[in-house]
Amino acid sequence: MFNFSFDKRMIYIILGIMVLSMVVQYLANPGMLFSLLISVPGVLIAITFHEFAHAFVADKLGDDTARREGRLSLNPLDHLDPIGTVLLLFAGFGWGKPVHVNPRNYTRKMSMEKGEALVSIAGPIMNFILAIIFAIIYYGIYKFADTSFLLSTMGEILMSLISATVSINVGLGLFNLIPLPPLDGSKVIMPFLPYNAKSFFINNEQIFYIIFVVVWITGLASYIITPGIQVVGGWISNLAMAIWGI
Predict the structure, then answer these.
(1) How many CB atoms lie within 10 A of CB 245?
(2) Which terminus of the chain has fewer CB atoms gathered within 10 Å of its CB, N or C?
(3) Is 124 exposed, middle or buried (0-12, 13-18, 19+ CB in 10 A)?
């Protein structure tokens, strides 16, 4: 998906401090710990399919780099990035291991820039599709399952798992659409920028990386994507309920 060009050691130190702080909170609050455990399957699904979508579209456009590196796979171990996975678990947004591509191998039916945009947006689109699918499953169970099952421990856990999977996919999709390098959104908007803006964007990419780090470390990312999660999540829920006539 993307590559960091700054010192990862500092990021690991900051991440370690953040995670340690969160672990203390989770240990003090069993409810939060339960929520964390419930989110694990959703994180694995969201990251795996997100990165697979990047690899799949790049492969279809003629670049076999991801195929040769074993990324055309639905095995979560092939796609998990330590930092991005931990963030997705603890903060609700994150990323997977970068899918390496070579735009020069893309079909000449479109420009390399448009090919990159298509490959980049494939990940978020996959997350939104998954969110819709799991929302449909959620409300299908809600409509047809017995009340006794929904109120049982197994029923509550199942519904919590599905609900968390919907939320995580929406969050991952929206977070990666933020138009800052190294996120997918930075490549998605590139074909639509005027020449001067595009040149400025490319020549000052390091500045945008720094902005990304600041947005991430300060927690501004949550403020940016939380309203979007509520809007998109609400729309997906309404769509799923409409499908089942709820």
Answers:
(1) 7
(2) C
(3) buried
Closest of 173, 94, 91 to residue 132, by C-alpha: 173
Give the tens place of pLDDT for each residue, 190-235.
888 888 887 887 787 777 777 877 777 677 777 888 899 999 999 9
- C-alpha dihedral over 76, 81, 84, 87, to 10 degrees? 70
What is the Cα–Cα distance from 55 to 63, expressed in whole angstroms? 9
Q: Active-site residues: which are they?
A: 51
Quickly count helices (H) and strands (E) in the chain.
Answer: 11, 0
Q: Three-state SS across 175-222?
A: HCCCCCCCCHHHHHCHHHCCHHHHHHHHHCHHHHHHHHHHHHHCCHHH
How many Å apart are CA 37 and CA 137, to the nearest integer? 20
In the chain, domain spans: 8-244
Per-residue pLDDT tens digits for 40-89? 899 899 999 999 999 999 999 999 999 999 999 999 989 988 777 777 67
The first and second tokens of residue 12, run together, are 């690991």
Task: Report how far Cα 154 is from the mean position of its chain's Cα atoms.
Answer: 27
Joined tokens for residue 106: 């893309």
pTM of the model: 0.84
The span from the CA of 57 to the CA of 25, in Å, is 40
